[in-house]
Amino acid sequence: MPEKPDETEVAHWADKFADEVITRKPDKKEYVVESGVTPSGVVHAGNFREIMTQDLVFKALKDKGVKARYQYFWDDYDRFRKVPAGVPNEWNDYIGLPVTKTPDPWKCHDSYADHFKSLVKNEMKALGINVTFKSAEEEYKKGTFTELVKKALEGAEKIREIHNKFRKDELEKDWLPVRVYCEKCGKDTTTAKYLGGYELEYACECGEKARIDFKKKPALVKMLWRVDWPARWANYDVDFESSGKEHQASGGSVDTADLVCRDVFNHEPPIEPMYEFIYFKGQTEKLSKSKGNAPTITDLMEVYEPEVIRYLYTPKINKSFDVTFDADLLNIYNYFDEAKKSYYGKSEKKDNAEARKYALSKLSDKYVDLPQFSVCVNVIQIALGDAKHAKEILKKTGHAFKDADERLRLAWAWVQKYAPEQYRFIVQEKMPDVKVKKEIADVLSLIADQLNENTDGDNLQQFIFNTSKEKGVPMKDVFAAAYLLFLNKERGPKLGPFLASLDAKFAANRLKMIE
Ligand SMILES: [Zn+2]
Ligand SMILES: [Zn+2]
After folding, report:
1. Among candidates 297, 281, 226, 302, which has minimal Cα distance to 47?
2. Under a CB-based contact definition with an 8 Å cutoff, are residues 41 and 84 in contact?
3. Ligand 2: distance of its center to the CA of 200 in Å?
4. Interface pTM (ipTM) of the complex?
5. CATH architecture under which domain 13-146+227-274 falls
6. CATH for 438-511?
7. Structural domain boundaries of the chain?
8. Ligand 1 ion: Cβ-proximal residues, 5 Å cutoff
């Protein structure tokens, strides 16, 4: 086997960002890549682009031999804003509480926040994404942000001006960059006044009025999102954090966060590129209706291997791409398999850029030979979903079979849930009632004579082609007759390999139309 390529020999965009991160602060001991979300809703595969983008840059940094940390920040001290569809109306009572204090409507976790955290955590784990989790609630409670809260309050005037530059309706003079959580009812339905130092006074909708010292009780005061974000960059000295279009619009949170970071917290913001949207196609009606046309990583994992999902996220981040459940899935698997071969030097035409994409996608350092996904799709259908039988067919037909279980399982799931009609078939146990012309039947009989336990599918395909030509019968009629006999439909998988996959005696009898 040829030498494995140097994993960084061809620069991927993640490598370029990693270079940029290092060049900005060449002597830094540990670089910080950050991502985060408010755990109050499902993170779909489009939002997941942020998590994956950061992971690819994190991996690129490590491949360069520097120390790096991927910090995932739960914005779990955000308020519960509104009751989403599917959640009982009683949850209206919790609006204004932190999502960590809001109960889990599905009753499977300790809080609303924990429910959504666990979904993301499981998906990250499945994709081999290793992050250091931080919780905003815990950090506020510990007083991590106390000095930054003070700076924000002292700089309230400046922050207000920064925001007003981009706003149509100017913020009021008494606007504060923080919210106070009421000590009595726990909600942020308060109005507050800054008294200087660490002191604030507030009045809550519940009637509570109090004067507080947030150095003593740091959990009561939380910065607003557009101030919280740059405060975090300053506190953890974040080097890289990509974000979606919604944050990157003019006057969006990136614009204001940059200014607040520099002017109020005296800190240079991280490298913060925008990533493009992801579109979805080929989903079933049911999925698109129930999830607003946005599948999750868990949905993708029904039909995609984890490494292939990672690979899906390797194209340029300023370009949108389709996540597909239709027949294009077969192409994606093929591209991935080719990238893997390039990486391991098993490809005839080595593509270094693809090899690097694979290096960033891989979850194991061992080369595992697998049959093409399209082969699995055919074989598992011939085996009626029985993986053991399917592996026997793979072995018999000269395909890699040892480690094929997972791919066969995914192929079967794809056939049952997403595969377009032309990719689906059922081998008919009983011979369908088919009228076949004499000259076609003669060709089928000659094909039958070729079949034995060692028939090579591609050679057989060539034989079918040659024999039809010699006998002067249209090849499409031969194919149609064969498919009708086996599948009771006029189209099917490539005939030669298909026939070679079947039990030789069964296939020969069927071609000779012997029951
Ligand atoms: Zn739950
Ligand atoms: Zn209150």
Report:
1. 297
2. yes
3. 15
4. 0.97
5. 3-Layer(aba) Sandwich (3.40)
6. 1.10.10.350
7. 13-146+227-274, 178-223, 373-423, 438-511
8. 104, 106, 108-109, 115
